[in-house]
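Possible race condition, two jobs.
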Amino acid sequence: MTGVDLFSQHIGQIKGVENFMVLRHDGHMLTHNMSQPEKMSSLATLTGISAQSIQKTMGFTPFRYLVFAREHNQSLIIFTLDKFYVGILAKTGFNLAELIEDIAKFLVKIKVKRNPGNSPKEEEE
């Protein structure tokens, strides 16, 4: 099983995740479980690139996530993970703060595994 397969298996088990996608910073889709991911992947890539550009230009700290409210109380959350963007469609009516926290913890674990010399505290900063 590849790393992408393991990631897909685990991210889909997080309570509150309806659908997900993983994209490289150039917009190339690595994996997803959406029926029509094209519009969402474009949105995730363009906003991720824009947020990182603003961050670098203005000297802000790197963004952790962006949230877009959609029709019918469904939200799209975009996280950054190294050279990737992770897009999450939250289940309707789910506690968004709890979901963001759970996904952020999951992504920190991945970063620590990829960079074993770093502690979770260092990765969160």
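Job #2 (started ~2 s after job #1):
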Amino acid sequence: MKQLIVLCAVFLLLAAIILQIPLEMINYERKHAIMFYVNNAKEMAKQEGFYTDEILNELKNSIAKKMNIKNVNEIIIGDKTTKTPKYRPDKFDNRETIYLKVSVPFKNILATPGFYGISDSENRGYFIIEEITTSEKLRSN
């Protein structure tokens, strides 16, 4: 009888871990897709010299579609994101770098939050990505 009780306790612990593995795989795939979208936006911004509203809207829409986010305003674009043109200098100049910060809400971080005493409202967070790159846009003389 004692062994049955211990077996049930061990099974519950293993079940929580086993259920977490597929969720980790799903979250990894989502993070990878977000990084892909951010990298595409970065490459477009390098050509333009800054993050245009069109680039940022396309980025937000792509992420929202992948993450099943109904309101794209939940995706936060940082205040310091470069929205004015930067140009390619002859030598490195930190003032001419292009910056982007994106915060994407993530839900269901743990597969069994109730097992750990965590509520659904606490079982969420933000995936934050920061990108810094140099502009490829040339000054027109």
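Strands lie at 76-77, 97-107, 124-134.
Logs attached separately.
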